[in-house]
Write a structure and sequence with these properties.
The chain is an alpha+beta fold and about 280 residues long. It has 2 domains: about 160 residues, OmpA-like domain (60s Ribosomal Protein L30, Chain: A); about 50 residues. Helix content is about 55%, strand content about 10%. A hairpin with a 4-residue loop joins strand 1 and strand 2. Helix 3 runs antiparallel to helix 5. It is flat, with a radius of gyration of 36 Å. The C terminus is likely disordered.
């Protein structure tokens, strides 16, 4: 009697793989959508990266935003301006609040001369190479007392004018215009109530609401690329101008030598004519 046939190996059921692959694909698509809709918080990202670098021992333990905050705080302290300038690191970047009364002549957008050294001290930090990719949003704020002058018909013009005056001075001392934006908020964003419940003005709060705020944020990738292109184009123009100036200076130098030679030859000719003139007259 022949032995019974060996049982055939049962084929594994792999139909579950199809469902598993679909689930993985859906999860991947979900996370891709999350990333595409999200906005990277650059200051927080920098802090996290600094922490990681610290853990792996690279020695870079402070983010660029933190470095800038520390340097600005030091600059304000050295200028003894802590009472009129407040530097804070926030989720968005760095905010610098400046009391308008200390920086502007009342009722105008004219910077006080005594405030210029403080502005220049902060601008030195802004201009450093490691901080050049920080944008500077300048925001003007007023209290709720209305103003009506030929130059400033309302608080809107005054707040915007003060922001513009700050930006113009930054440009004059070397900060690039691309980095700056100017906004006037009038009295729409008070930090403290301008008036009490009875409608009476609160002078202390009004003074604190009259301010100019700077918001410094690290540029996003596209902004940095655009700014880099502008800087490159500007540098190329400067180099081209230097080349033209050098060529013009060289051409002028050659022309000066030619003129000098011609003048010397003319002088010698005149001397010869002067010396021969008396002899000719005596002969006659």
């Amino acid at each position: 009697m022949p032995p019974p046939p060996l049982p055939l190996d049962e084929e594994e059921d792999e139909s579950w793989l199809l469902t598993y692959a679909d689930a993985i694909t859906l999860l991947m698509a979900f996370f891709v959508m999350l990333v595409s809709f999200s906005k990277i918080d650059l200051p927080t990202f920098e802090d996290v990266m600094a922490g990681i670098k610290d853990e792996i021992g690279t020695g870079m333990t402070v983010s660029t935003t933190t470095q800038m905050t520390q340097e600005l705080e030091s600059a304000v302290f050295e200028m003894q301006a802590e009472k009129v300038v407040d530097v804070q690191k926030t989720d968005r970047g760095i905010t610098i609040e400046m009391a308008a009364g200390a920086f502007f002549i009342p009722g105008t957008a004219t910077l006080r001369k005594e405030a210029l050294p403080i502005i220049e001290s902060m601008a030195v930090t802004f201009a450093k190479e490691k901080f050049k990719y920080f944008s500077i949003a300048i925001e003007g704020h007023t209290d709720d007392d209305p103003i009506n002058t030929p130059q400033f018909p309302s608080n809107w013009e005054l707040s915007a004018g003060r922001s513009a005056a700050m930006a113009k001075y930054f440009i004059e001392i070397g900060l690039h215009p691309y980095r700056q934006t100017v906004t006037g908020f009038s009295d729409t964003r008070p930090k403290f109530p301008n008036r009490d419940k009875m409608g009476a003005a609160i002078p202390e709060n009004q003074a604190r609401n009259r301010r100019v705020e700077l918001l410094l944020e690290a540029m996003m990738r596209k902004e940095k690329e655009a700014f880099s292109d502008i800087l490159l184009e500007q540098r190329l123009k400067e180099e081209e101008q230097k080349r033209k100036d050098a060529e013009e200076a060289k051409r002028q130098e050659v022309q000066d030598k030619i003129n000098e030679t011609n003048n010397r030859a003319n002088d010698e000719t005149n001397d010869e004519e002067s010396s021969s003139a008396p002899a000719s007259e005596n002969g006659q």
